[in-house]
Amino acid sequence: MSIFLYKLSRLAFRRRWAMVGFWVVLLVAGGVGAATLSGPTVNTLSIPGTESQAAQDLLAERFPESSTGGASARIVFESPAGTTLADPAIRQSVSELVSALGKDPEVAAVSDPYASGGMSPTGTIGYMQVSYTADSMDLPDSSKELLESAVHDASDSGLAVDVAGNVLMESSAEAMGEVIGVAIAAVVLTVTFGSLVAAGLPLISALIGIGIAICTITIATGFIELGSSTTVLAMMLGLAVAIDYSLFIVSRYRSELRDGHDPEIAAGRAAGTAGSAVVFAGLTVLIALAGLFVVNIPFLTSMGLAAAFAVAVAVVISLTLLPATLGFAGSRVLSRSDRRLLASGGELTHRKQSEGAGSRWAKFVIRRRVPVLLASVLGLGLLAIPTFGINLSLASPPVPDT
């Protein structure tokens, strides 16, 4: 394995233009395919063979109008002090709210709180359920704006109104989370390596790899049924392992350069050593994710296989594209002080490298191993205290207190 990776890395290093061009063309082709061949995703989470799934299937069969599988909103309202929902003026406001929402062509059903019994025993608090034909990600902005406008009008009439449900959920937060994660990784890598080039190579490789993986998964939605959360898991895991695996190889490449090796030889040795660890680490993750197939839950199976594909792409990228980009970077992955020392004919020995803050911290831990161990256990125990009050459940939008 090491010899093969050594030769593969040197080949990618020498043929760097061809290797980079291949991956860029693959990324562009994936983008075109995702734009033209993709299909809709689904938000239905089914667990075949369970009693709860059988109950859901029966409800969908008997009451299809309330089991659309789309977005939903629950509107809770309270009458002004000294009044009840039975007062003519208040009842008129609620009826206008029901009527306004029922005019939306995307609305499948709106429950009337007076007819469905959706009121408290005191008659001051009530609720209504709104079901949509499309899920929250595919729901047009006009439907969301109509809901907000209707609720605002009801509030102006004196009712205290709150809305819960997934109808107003946005996907921008997920995308922003990935952007923030990449930005933080860039800062950490720059500080760690002391070189923008060394910090940029793992990020560039990771972004190209995750782009190809996500585009491929998006193309697959045109042929097979995949959940809307499938790409989210694939992106998170793919981005994490791609940066991690590339970091292994870049770090070893820098070490080989410090030992005075030629850049091409250094790239080959980095792939032959750290690259072997990348392969075995990737295989471990692949096996773990593919194991989700055993539980026989369709949405978990699709998520696991998609994430495993993203990890596989990350491994291949780290062993082919990364060595090619190292060919362009050369010795610029080192800090300026290291490059000046090498240019002057000096040698960066392992002794000098061991004088960093990490080495000093490791020596401190070894000398004070018992106090450090006790402090670590105590710290982990303190961090674990909140888990005693944790409530495990599926993620859902919060419901405001009424």
Note the topology.
Elements: H1 2-14, H2 16-37, H3 51-62, E1 72-78, H4 88-102, E2 107-110, H5 113-116, E3 125-132, H6 141-156, E4 160-164, H7 172-193, H8 196-220, H9 230-258, H10 263-290, H11 298-329, H12 336-343, H13 350-353, H14 357-367, H15 369-384
Antiparallel strand pairs: 1-3, 1-4, 2-3
Helix pairs in contact: 1-2, 1-10, 1-11, 2-8, 2-11, 4-6, 7-8, 8-9, 8-11, 9-10, 9-11, 10-11
Structural write-up:
There is one protein chain. With 402 residues, the protein is mostly helical. The chain folds into two domains: 2-38 and 171-351, Multidrug efflux transporter AcrB transmembrane fold, CATH 1.20.1640.10; 74-164, Alpha-Beta Plaits. Helix content is 64%, strand content 6%. The chain contains 15 helices and four strands. It has helices at residues 2-14, 16-37, 51-62, 88-102, 113-116, 141-156, 172-193, 196-220, 230-258, 263-290, 298-329, 336-343, 350-353, 357-367, 369-384; strands at 72-78, 107-110, 125-132, 160-164. It has a four-stranded antiparallel beta sheet, with helices on one face. α2 (16-37) packs parallel to α8 (196-220), α4 (88-102) packs antiparallel against α6 (141-156) and α7 packs antiparallel against α8. The longest helix has 32 residues, at 298-329. The model is unreliable at 350-354 (pLDDT under 50).
